[in-house]
Amino acid sequence: xxxxxxxxxxxxxxxxxxxxxxxxxxxxxxxxxxxxxxxxxxxxxxxxxxxxxxxxxxxxxxxxxxxxxxxxxxxxxxxxxxxxxxxxxxxxxxxxxxxxxxxxxxxxxxxxxxxxxxxxxxxxxxxxxxxxxxxxxxxxxxxxxxxxxxxxxxxxxxxxxxxxxxxxxxxxxxxxxxxxxxxxxxxxxxxxxxxxxxxxxxxxxxxxxxxxxxxxxxxxxxxxxxxxxxxxxxxxxxxxxxxxxxxxxxxxxxxxxxxxxxxxxxxxxxxxxxxxxxxxxxxxxxxxxxxxxxxxxxxxxxxxxxxxxxxxxxxxxxxxxxxxxxxxxxxxxxxxxxxxxxxxxxxxxxxxxxxxxxxxxxxxxxxxxxxxxxxxxxxxxxxxxxxxxxxxxxxxxxxxxxxxxxxxxxxxxxxxxxxxxxxxxxxxxxxxxxxxxxxxxxxxxxxxxxxxxxxxxxxxxxxxxxxxxxxxxxxxxxxxxxxxxxxxxxxxxxxxxxxxxxxxxxxxxxxxxxxxxxxxxxxxxxxxxxxxxxxxxxxxxxxxxxxxxxxxxxxxxxxxxxxxxxxxxxxxxxxxxxxxxxxxxxxxxxxxxxxxxxxxxxxxxxxxxxxxxxxxxxxxxxxxxxxxxxxxxxxxxxxxxxxxxxxxxxxxxxxxxxx
Length: 659
What we know:
By secondary structure, the chain is an alpha+beta fold. 36% of the residues lie in helices and 19% in strands. The protein has 16 helices and 26 strands. The strands form eight sheets. A five-stranded antiparallel beta sheet has the order 1-4-5-3-2.
């Protein structure tokens, strides 16, 4: 063998070293890379050099070379039919555009290498600085909160655990609200909060910007709920990462930088400012006139359409009677089923409640709130048109009549109750809590419902709860904590004690929710529970039994197969919500966290006694269905035939917007 020259030996040595360094570097690049290759294994493979493979490579190359996008979100497609590829690239809100493209390029190399020939894959790189995913299915604008998901946590524990958990919840829910309100370019927020001896807590949340505001809030809320469970129970730091959103908190260090992109509308060219203003004014005037004419022309047609849809509001289509009027089932000409609330023509406060409900529901979107589809006004007639919720309201299922005139009625009640096993009841409790949390904290508005009760919780075909009836709701500004009123309206027994003297807040809704939990667990109305020889207010009896270690006594006898610890925990949470002292009651953010941490036995505070409402035998509850307190005087509407689940149709409504 010929002897190699020193120069050639040196060249070969350098080549070996370079190759070794490249291999080590490649290995290191995947160490901080979390990925999933078509987790459900149902998307199939693509073959090398196929049309799909070519489209994928072209799409990913285009994505990382795009220098026009400076806000860190890319969603592109390439190809047609079965060869069409969808791709999403998302960079953390503090990553500069150049670093964003570098991160995505590294993700592309890792993902195509680690998931060879897979049609669907997703990966997160360098502490979620960027995410890259692609698929042969449509993935844009989807709130995907299931798998794939991964969790991580800090091994250290905080000193004051209870305070720390409260502060983490407060920080992350506030950040979630800010991120969800972002536009179609960026849905990102990061900040910190002081937590006493634990020091500052740093938090970051982000959604893919193609989500709606409610979808982003829902995704982040579900992630925050995992903190006391899979994610990071009793840890000083943790993260939950999903395809549609991710969140993280730490106490050790600030892990994020300044925002890389702050959305702002581009200013118009100087020479066009006056022209734009003139055009805008002219267009506005034309639109206002057109809308007025259109409404005048169409309102009678709309009225006739809804009247026809409900078969002239026939009794056979009547779903129920509420405090403000009857609700009817209807079917539009296109086959869509609707629920039409026909407000009572004789209601003195009908205009206020009607305007209140339309203005509020038009801006609220959440899967646990009933959806407003439209409205109609014709003379004194007012209609609100909602999505149709097939399973009526919660009180239709949960309360058993104590006296029956025939066996058929008994069998009917038992059939209804059979649908409410413990898993279903817990789903209703948790879903209602998420809906109230959205009203209090996660929506663009701050809403106090003021009439939460079983009759206002509707159930869809899968028994998911939807909060309804916003006629009495009040709007709070962001930093407002409470409001005083001289007129108090609502359903007796559900109203918090401070509300009875003219003051209400978010904690008033918490009280009502606590009553609702106890009703769902016991299967009995707040005012009609009977235990042995004792008949009285459900909250009082529940608290006494809990204090005696006999909380199981109030549980519905049909709940034989439910989780004992979960049921007892719900009673405990319900009692925390109905405490007499409003300040001692938890926030809805804490309630949601407590409801999702049951399997880990997270300790709860000891509740104090609930408010005193008197004893049913003394007549306090007799014939007191509807209540109004005005300027210190209390009266009951004893002349009506409505059930005690209805609310008085007289309210003082705060105008959400000026006239």
